[in-house]
Amino acid sequence: MHSELFSIGPLTIHAYGVCMALGFLLAWQAISYLCKKTGQASDYLSSLLVWIMVWAVVGARVAYVLEHWTAEFRDAPLAVFRIDQGGLMFYGGFIGAAVTLIVYARLLRKPFLAITDLLLTGLPLGHAFGRVGCFFHGCCYGALTDGPLGVRFPKGSPAWWEQTASGALPQTADAALPVLPTQFFEAALNAALFALLFALYPKRYGKTGFISALYCCAYGAIRFGMEYLRGDQRMALFGLSIGQCISLCVFATGIVLLATRRKRAE
Question: For residue 154, which phi and psi values (nearest 5 degrees)?
Fold first, then answer.
């Protein structure tokens, strides 16, 4: 865990922010490449991606703060604005980006699913880097484990704070109890999903909605299963975590898109 990379005077560079920036830039490059490969005009992408990035971060931060208000922000409300220190919920960002995209597509009068096919191809790459940033910050950690894959985050990390608050660990401990590195698990699965979508996009270009449907089904399943391995505190709903509830909705959206495409083809 290396939350702070280095400092320049009063400015501290955090690993989470660096990973987020790298993920965004590489996803942008991948999307631009696909535009050239398929002969699409990409002049609108720059402004669209900037707006998506802004509102995705806002949505991700709002969702994270709401879910972790008692544990992290109730006693330090000004920390809400320190997004450079980590603390973003992917599904909150996903919803923020989706709303932005709907508005933008209507203003430009462009097919919504054609844009989502393109953007969702690059999204898993950026998401993979974001999860690496989560590991450096120590958030989104996994459940306790005695296995060889367990990692121990240092004193002061989110895992350490929650374990000491629950009484599972004394406050004199120098490190948290071993937990699963779920951040790396999800980063690897997102990277694999990106490789699949990146290879399929040129072949499926023109079959609007297929890539979007595949992403929703694949990531919905990935995240639903990954939630069982998480150890950080999360909101619960109907016996499932809030992430699992949203995952089911995302997966169902993918199924509906596939069914709609098949019906139109018939």
Answer: -75, 170
